[in-house]
Design goal:
CATH class of the largest domain: Mainly Beta
Shape: elongated
Helix content: 10-25%
Structural class: mainly beta
CATH superfamily of the largest domain: Immunoglobulins
Distance between the termini: 156 Å
Pfam family, one: SpaA
Protein name: Peptidase
Keywords: Cell wall, Membrane, Peptidoglycan-anchor, Secreted, Signal, Transmembrane, Transmembrane helix
Strand content: 25-35%
Number of helices: 6
CATH topology of the largest domain: Immunoglobulin-like
């Protein structure tokens, strides 16, 4: 036989594949190992599965250079101890279960042919459908799986990742893994193999065939808890509860290209979701929370943006859990916590084809493209008004892709900060007063809050140059949505619920009547320990304008400026001028008369 008879899935490698068909090559047989069709050959054996997980998900790439690392092992001599350790870069995984089901028959033309692997003819028939076995063909009617005693449930793997099934009859089997929560198959979650496992060995130019009735296979898993990331997108302005809050989700696809291209059938049910706390957010424009999805991309480049719609690349749904417990039933809302709404981005067949195509084009060892979902939420009035709710934790997760015809895995909802960002809030207040007397509080002062100091500085500069704050080109428009005015007492009517832990820049954009604008940028980092009754407070003194009502002079009143005394001095001056003119004219006339005499 050319290669080991272990087909597809987690144990398909270049030395573990059916290469030639339909014939089964028969070189010299290793001593102590009988072919199953020979007289007195064993009729039963055992299967040992060693379950391994990849140690570091961050090093995972979509395309592997080759599949030459043996995932199935057969001893050179019957009874020889086999290696049950995990390959380099992997470690054992406990509590993983498998179902081993014997294939009852295969389709040959229009006939169902019952398999008997004690006969050489059955091996030839299997060799003729290897490529179809690799495609997991039971739904297409290529194979018929057995029932009853042909179905074996293996015990869960132990601390060494090992589980053994004894007294297994010779035959062709399908092995299906129940993928543990939080994990995905590193290669495939199901595969076909024969018992005995048959492998060619070449040593010193001599080729022998080994029939292993107690094989060890090592399907591998990858921890998916770090395969999805979520963060608050600070490229958008966010200073407090009046602003929209933007999130970006990035998620890896838990499938790799091994030996052959992926298709949409390898990516069944792949979906990404946001589990938003229902009470914290409000429906944008009364459209439903599904309208929070702003864009969906896969990879980079001009073709990275995907199109929404059932006839396009993805659909978006929003379903709330109004019960008091997490949803445990299978379906799109499985694992949804009480009081949360799942905003699900589910890829259509067309979308999965695009994803598969890009994954197939990734060079060996290169980083795989990822799904990117951008969302934007308006914070609800209930959260804005609450003086006790001071945090918003927004979860995320995804439904791992699986092969068509295999059981859909449970959703991955990591309980780590990297996938469920928490935004904390505190309270901000101002103290607006007359610089000459701090006890005199000022109303009517308007403020804005910036998240960028450079933009705050530009705003104050424009105000000094008398640019109107609401002018079309005013740099003050780069402020957040906050726009509060002080009331009697020199404070906002209520402290502002602002983001805690981030530096904010507060600018006065309009002074109280009769006072000069305070052209400064005040910096503050609001603490999450502040309360509505005990907020962080910024002091803003204002310099009064002196003179008549509406006057515009700082600090000092100049004597007689604009007063009645000025008029008296003016009249006296005019009298002196008139007298001087009269005397001048009279003297000039007298001089002329003397000259004419």
């Amino acid at each position: 036989m050319a290669g080991t008879l272990c087909v597809a899935g987690a144990v398909t490698v270049s030395s573990v594949a059916w290469a030639n068909k339909p014939g089964v090559s028969q070189p010299s047989v290793n001593k102590g190992s009988k072919a199953p069709w020979e007289s007195k050959a064993p009729t039963t054996g055992s299967l040992t599965i060693v379950k391994c997980r990849k140690k570091d998900v961050s090093t995972t790439t979509t395309t592997v250079a080759s599949s030459s690392t043996a995932n199935a092992s057969a001893s050179n001599e019957t009874g020889k101890t086999q290696d049950t350790s995990c390959p380099a870069g992997f470690e054992s995984l406990k509590d993983v279960s498998f179902t081993v089901t014997k294939v009852a028959s295969i389709k040959e033309g229009t006939n169902d042919v019952t398999l008997n692997l004690a006969q050489y003819d059955s091996w030839q028939k299997i060799a003729g459908i290897v490529s179809k076995l690799n495609a997991h063909p039971e739904e297409a009617g290529v194979v018929t799986l057995g029932t009853g005693t042909d179905v074996h449930n293996m015990t869960a793997t132990d601390k060494d990742g090992k589980s053994t099934l004894n007294n297994l009859s010779v035959g062709l089997y399908k092995i299906v893994e129940k993928v543990p929560d939080g994990y995905g198959a590193y290669d495939f979650s199901s595969f076909y193999m024969t018992l005995p496992l048959i492998e060619q060995k070449t040593d010193n130019g001599k080729t022998t065939t080994v029939y292993e009735y107690n094989p060890v296979v090592k399907p591998k898993n990858i921890d998916l808890s770090s395969a999805i990331k979520k963060n608050v997108d600070k490229s958008h302005i966010f200073a407090g509860v009046k602003d929209k809050i933007y999130y970006t989700i990035t998620a890896k696809v838990n499938k790799t290209k091994i030996d052959k291209d992926l298709t949409e059938k390898n990516l069944k049910d792949y979906a990404v979701f946001d589990d938003a706390p229902t009470s914290a957010f409000t429906e944008p424009n009364n459209q439903g929370l599904d309208a929070a999805v702003q864009s969906v991309k896969f990879g980079t480049g001009s073709d990275s943006t995907l199109t929404k719609g059932e006839n396009n690349d993805y659909t978006v749904t929003a379903k709330a859990n109004s019960d008091n417990a997490e949803i445990a039933t299978a379906g799109d809302t499985k694992g949804l916590a009480a009081g949360h709404t799942r905003i699900l981005v589910k890829f259509t067949e067309a979308g999965l084809k695009k994803i598969a195509s890009k994954l197939n084009n990734v060079a060996a060892g290169s980083e795989a493209p990822q799904v990117e979902v951008e969302l934007a939420f308006d914070i609800s009035k209930a959260f804005k008004d609450s003086t006790t709710d001071k945090t918003i934790t927004n979860k995320s997760g995804f439904f791992p892709a699986h092969d068509e015809g295999t059981t859909a895995p449970n959703p991955i909802i990591p309980n780590v900060d990297g996938s469920k960002p928490t935004v904390k809030f505190g309270y901000l207040q101002v103290d607006k007063y007359n610089s000459e007397d701090e006890s005199k509080k000022l109303s009517g002062a308007e403020f804005k809050i910036f998240t960028d100091k450079g933009k705050a500085d530009l705003c104050t500069k424009s105000l000094k140059e008398n640019t109107a704050v609401d002018a079309k080109d005013s740099p003050c428009k780069a402020a957040s949505a906050f726009d509060e005015t002080t009331v009697e007492g020199g404070k906002f009517s209520n402290p502002y619920k602002a983001e805690a832990g981030s530096t904010l820049y507060v600018v006065e954009v309009k002074a109280p009547e009769g006072f000069a604008l305070s052209p400064v940028v005040k910096e503050i980092t609001v603490k999450d320990t502040t309360t509505n009754d005990n907020p962080d407070t910024l002091k803003f003194p204002n310099i009064p304008l002196h003179g008549e009502k509406g006057g515009n002079k700082f600090w000092f009143n100049l004597p007689a400026t604009g007063a009645a005394g000025v008029i008296l001095f003016a009249l006296a001056g005019m009298g002196l001028i008139a007298a001087s003119v009269f005397l001048y004219m009279r003297n000039r006339k007298e001089e002329e008369q003397q000259q004419n005499a």
